[in-house]
Amino acid sequence: MNNYCGIKHNTIENDRNQEITFSNNFIDITIIRNHLKSADDFLKNLKEENLINLNDNKNQKYFIKEFSVIKNFLNSLELSKILNFSFLTFENTTYFDMTATELTFIPKEINNLLNLETLILNYNKICKIENLVNLSKLKRLGLRSNRIREIEGLENKNNLQILTLSCNLLENIDDENFCDFPSLNEIGLFGNFLGDENNKEENYKQLDKVLDLLSRRASNLSSIYLGGNHFLHLDQADLRKRIKEYNFKSLNKLDGQYLN
């Protein structure tokens, strides 16, 4: 993939379905593989590409609808600086993607993106799910390939439809911290450390615990990804039989394969 930096001007509709243009400054930003390491690099990149112009009006504001900075080297502190730039407004941002950067934690400023519907933070070094409590409109959360050990910090996610936590460091799912997800359709738990590789009895016990929790807290699931855990060593026919014993309303896929 080539280096890419792009910006697209957009409009937005108000409650009366009237099209509003913010002086042509309602925009999408996409920056891929531009070797950005700091907020200053980010700003320099936008200026060099003539994507923003702050010279004529120091009070100029750009309203961000979609924000994607992918395969760069920005850490969490530098992302915080970007989110605090006075000329960028994220209050109407619905899509935010920081895949494969250098994030070690979720900055507190993310919690201010109240209209966010999609948040993708895959392939980072995040150890804890935090600073998301205000994101009640969130429909998709991607945290694949991080360093997360606990499913927590996901209160008030009644609209969440897709939750991806595959390839993390989960060894257990705590009932106390696992929230209710009434709209959840798909959960990815592939490639963690759930179960006990050396104890078949304990393996079944852990599997039943996970299935029981999911059936109670996310009963509308239609797809679960569990492969790549210690459950992988269980008899697949038995595994599928056990899944059907739980009170899922519409579950029909395990690891991408239909259960029937």
Provide structural commentary.
The protein is an alpha/beta fold and 260 residues long. It is 17% helix and 20% strand. The strands form 2 sheets. Strands 1, 4, 5, 6, 7, 8, 9, 10, 11, 12, 13 and 14 form a 12-stranded mixed β-sheet that branches. Strands 2-3 form a two-stranded antiparallel sheet. Strand 2 and strand 3 (19-20) form a beta hairpin. The protein is elongated, with a radius of gyration of 21 Å.
Summarize it.
This protein is of the alpha/beta class. 17% of the residues lie in helices and 20% in strands.
Uncertain regions: pLDDT < 50 for 5+ in a row? 9-23
Structural class, by secondary structure, is: alpha/beta
> What characterizes the major β-sheet?
12 strands, mixed
Number of strands: 14
The residue-averaged pLDDT reads 88
Rg over C-alpha atoms, rounded to the nearest angstrom: 21 Å
Shape, per Cα inertia axes: elongated
H/E topology pattern:
EEEEHEHEEEEEEHEHEE
Distance between the ends: 39 Å
Number of helices: 4
Strand content: 15-25%
Helix fraction bin: 10-25%
